[in-house]
Request: fold
Amino acid sequence: MKRNVKFVQGNEACVEGALYAGLDFFAGYPITPSTEIAEHLSERLPIKGGKFIQMEDEIASMCAIIGASLTGKKVMTATSGPGFSLKQEALGYAIMAEIPCVIVNVQRGGPSTGNPTHVSQGDVNQARWGSHGDYAIVVMTASTIQDVFEVTIRAFNIAETYRTPVILLFDEIIGHMREKLILPEPGEIPLVERMRTSVKSGVDYHPYLPREDGRLPMSDFGGKHRYNVTGLFHDMWGFPSTKPEIVHGLLRHLNDKIINYAESICMYKEFELEDAEIIFISYGASARTVLHTVKNRRKAGEKVGFIELQTLWPFPYNIIRRKCANARHVIVVEMNMGQLTRTVKNAVEDHRKVFLMNRIDGLLITVSDIRNILRMLQGKGV
Amino acid sequence: MAFKDYIRERFFPHIWCPGCGHGMVLKGMLKAVEKLGIDKNNIVMVSGIGCSARITGYVDFHTLHTIHGRALAFATGVKISRPELCLIVPMGDGDALAIGGNHFIHACRRNIDITAVIMNNRIYGMTGGQYSPLSGIGKYASTAPYSTIENKFDIVKLAETAGASFVARTTTYHIREMIDILCMAISNKGFSVVEIFSQCPTYFGRKNELKTPTDMLNYFKDNTTPIGSKVKEANPELIERGVFINSSMPEYCEEYDKIVAKAKKNTEV
Reply:
């Protein structure tokens, strides 16, 4: 069968994935290095009858997609560090009101304006903890253009399944790098559509009464059920409440509906772990360097293995603990000050065997960077 | 349909203080909707944060109580996705013009078919009486114990300059006028701004020598006049009420439909 093959940037692959998943509405604001996502969608969305709007700021973009999602649409926005900071309050609203939506953050160097045209993975913890209050959220990433496409589709599926915002945490290299993308035929990758309530018109509908499995069937704004949506703690009708049992129940629900399904949400790839004495853990652009190094070192007979994380949050604690149980060293390779290294240390039995291998200068980690660390651990000297 | 059919009685009594003007605006809005005969299923009411924003909880429409200042941005997302729905956005003066000022001017500029109702009580009531961008000079507030020194916005001029196609001002004293204006605003195909002076006797009045709700309503009566009235010539300090702008301009969603047609045509070629 002739495949539909393209040679595209990561940002374009994200656009392709979103359109494949059924994106109807995008609101955004120009920011490097994510702007191409908005540019391509401004061209592509109207062709399929979808809507694109460039809003007045990052906050408004986040708010607009929440409003659009409530009418039953699949929605997305895209940004980078400074814009991601601005979106945090509205992101918290989407968590509280349980609005399916996808937020892309193509990471650049920070803090502040930082290093807009260079790579960084400095928003890993912000993606998990950035908005105020206790919540759980799904954060996914990718290291190849094909994976960007597939992870984007999965982000929409998870957003619809769990009624939650999902963050796609790419980085400048993945966003701008060009690589082959094989576009599957429609229907090849399963899509999750909005679960709508079966409650009939005129019957009391409880928009915020979760089913036993934690899922909440929705009713579209403009549809047969009129209900209230609020960022305040709310009862099963969506009406504000400060009753302790309601506050407690809702906060538990918001966390449990993600954490309890962590095993099925988490995606990762593993290479050569069986007898690995040294295991690398990485994600995004830096995972490319690690994979290359691991393949080469294996050829040289060194017992090294690699776990590439595609879901960063919820963090796959049990998987990492199990996989790393027999390794002598665990090296976390990331382009930040060790944001995920701390979490890996919490996951493994003995945190002393976990090391950070990083670069924070806006350049991609190189093979020789990793080789040097490896040689030190092997007692060979640099 | 009776006016009562537009509220969610289950959630009353409301949270507003005795004498607050917001309940009068609520009733005015519902009377306007009743008069226009709009199906409840076709109305989406979006609000931000503050005393005014609590209106959404009490009305039997699709209601979205959002975050501070951003109601118009949420409403824009709803409207573009479902242009056939009627969007009404009640806001407070701080909500609309301090934290939400950016969204306000850009919604005006886009002329998107949304009705913004600014319930201007010149104070932050929910947080206990701090001065707002509409307080004006020489007013007292919990954060202005020695009086304010900041100029206030003129909402009408701001909305007009920013590009809204319908701009009006009224007060809670002039309830029939309010209902008529709201009917016109909701019917306008474009962005409509209605500024309604609403009394906050608890915080604004108490600190500014208008201690009772009646004092405040009388203040609205005595200090405003219909647009172009003779009284205004003799007393130029009077604030004008009525419809300032009511013009036909291209509406955002209709213009976007043209973009969709253009995009589809281009790909066919």
User: Anything to note?
Assistant: The radius of gyration of chain B is 19 Å.
